[in-house]
Design goal:
about 220 residues, mainly alpha, Arc Repressor Mutant, subunit A, Four Helix Bundle (Hemerythrin (Met), subunit A), 2 domains, three-stranded antiparallel sheet, two-stranded parallel ribbon, 5 strands, DNA binding, GntR_C, GntR family transcriptional regulator
Length: about 220
């Protein structure tokens, strides 16, 4: 588990644990100890207990009476639901951006970051850049609030991505991003929509493969 330098509230502990779960530092089935984490962050057990409850409310942990708190399994249904919503929303965003032709410098810059992270094997950095790429498209469409809504939906999807990006070819994702950006820069709405749909449907292939490889990590 990665230590945090300073934590004074249950929210800060929650945010730290939330990131650890999404990044795969805390795998499904891991038991969380109030005593150990409280000692690690130099807090009493009460804010840690509150953080566990919040994590459970996020669907990322299970609080089992008389047994303890465990990191929950990845919900395949939640992954597929978030992917479906993202495709519907982002295909419309892509069409809007292609039609309005805003500045796409931020999206282009993320491709460079992703290439570097791929070479260095920096999976967390790659995924953070991936998120910024999609967020930049939403901002280019003047729909930053829409991206915030999507962020709240895709916690389980991000857990899958941190697993799959360690296994699957990240250069394929970069190529898909480049196809999206090229179509947007050309003002090709149909091409941009097709490219973003192709990109987001990649998860339909990855999910069953990862579930087969790690059955204990997933639930329906």
């Amino acid at each position: 588990m990665i230590p945090i330098r300073a934590a004074t509230t249950a929210q800060q502990v929650h945010d730290w644990l939330y990131r650890c779960v999404l990044r795969g530092d805390l795998l499904p089935g891991t038991r969380l100890s109030e005593t150990e984490i409280a000692a690690q962050v130099n807090l009493s057990r009460q804010p840690v207990r509150e953080a566990f409850i919040r994590l459970a409310a996020d669907g990322l942990a299970e609080v089992l009476p008389q047994r303890g708190t465990y990191i929950g399994r990845i919900s395949m249904r939640a992954v597929l639901s978030a992917r479906f919503i993202r495709e519907a929303v982002e295909s419309d965003l892509a069409r809007h951006v292609a039609a309005t032709r805003p500045d796409l410098t931020a999206m282009a810059a993320e491709l460079t970051v992703q290439e570097r992270c791929d070479v260095e094997g920096d999976v967390p950095g790659f995924i953070e850049s991936d998120d910024r790429f999609h967020r930049a498209m939403a901002l280019a469409a003047d729909q930053g609030a829409v991206w915030q809504d999507l962020e709240r939906l895709k916690a389980q999807m991000n857990r899958l991505r941190h697993l799959s990006m360690r296994v699957f070819d990240r250069s394929q994702t970069i190529a898909q991003h480049r196809a999206v950006l090229t179509a947007l820069q050309a003002g090709d709405a149909d091409g941009a929509e097709d490219a973003i749909r192709t990109h987001l449907r990649q998860m339909l292939t990855e999910l069953p493969q990862m579930a087969a490889a790690h059955p204990d990590y997933f639930t329906d």
